[in-house]
Amino acid sequence: MRFAIIGAGVIGAVHARLIEALGDEAALVAVVDRDLDRAGKLVEQYGGHAYASAAEAYAAEQVDAVAICLPSALHADNAIEALQAGKDVIVEKPVDITLAAADRMIEAQRATGRTVAVISQRRFQPPVTQIRSAIDGGALGRVTSGIAESAFFRPQSYYDGDDWRGTLAVDGGGALMNQGIHALDLLVWMLGRPVQVSAQTGRLAHDGIEVEDLAGASILFESGAIGLLLASTAAYPGRPVRLTIHGDQGTAILDDDELAYFSAADAERPEAPVLDGPAGWGATELAHLAQYRDFIAAVREGREPAVTAAAGRRSLATVLAVYESARTGRPVELES
User: Fold this and answer.
1) CATH at residue 108
2) Residues 134, 192: one domain?
3) pLDDT, position 134
4) Do residues 185 and 100 both lie within one domain?
5) pTM over 0.70
6) Could you give the number of structural domains in the chain?
7) Residues contacting residue 179 through CB under 8 Å, at least 6 positions apart
8) 78, burial (CB in 10 Å: exposed 0-12, middle 13-18, buried 19+)
9) What pLDDT is stored for residue 162 in this prediction?
10) CB 273 within 8 A of CB 267
């Protein structure tokens, strides 16, 4: 599959490395960035040609799929351009920063019949799939609650390094929208459809930003299960995502990219899948690569990818409900 990357920044470089690691399954043919020098540096390392616009790349190259690696508020519009040009799309999280933008992209996907996947690589980590298998197989019984912690740290320089970081107009949010959305996505994947959110947010450790560096929420799910969420970029020195899922027949805990605890009344610990990839790659990198492989397989098999645009929209809707609840001081009901 021939890929174009839109956005040659840090995330674009991550995607270029993933495409290279796929070997014969994929090739990078184009990198698009308004900064042609930056795009040029990426193609020097990973191949393809540099372009200042997606339209130029689509006209000049045979592109099968596009990876959208731009600031969050630019995701949907660039995905729509790719879809309307007949390309399949893999878009970084969040799917965008508004539901209206996400809905435009989903409508474009329906109209074109193309495939869209939203990056949520943590779903592909072996311990995460073990927990999901335990839920699906009934090992935990009725799932009653979950706790998702994204206690990260970002220095002030992280926000100062790009003029769009920490802005409402482009970043759309802070510790939750940008980092904690991964943990939130896992909580939603495990517990189902959120129906009500009560939340608080704060900006405690960073200056000159418009967004939160701390968010806490209680989430009620359609099943009656309750989820607790913490997202932070103000938790020095930072910890890996931690996820706890409780059921009336068992409990499973993800910590430090491992299934740190598993106990069930009538079931054994599920077997962990093995992810293939380059030697020395970490758990998150291998999971990211596994999501790329799922996307390619979905396109070839004519099926939905594991993380659909609708799934990305659900996580975004929950993030926005957290922000609304924190702003109004009241619980927020989510649409069905």
Assistant:
1) 3.40.50.720
2) yes
3) 98
4) no
5) yes
6) 2
7) 150, 152, 154, 231, 233
8) buried
9) 87
10) no
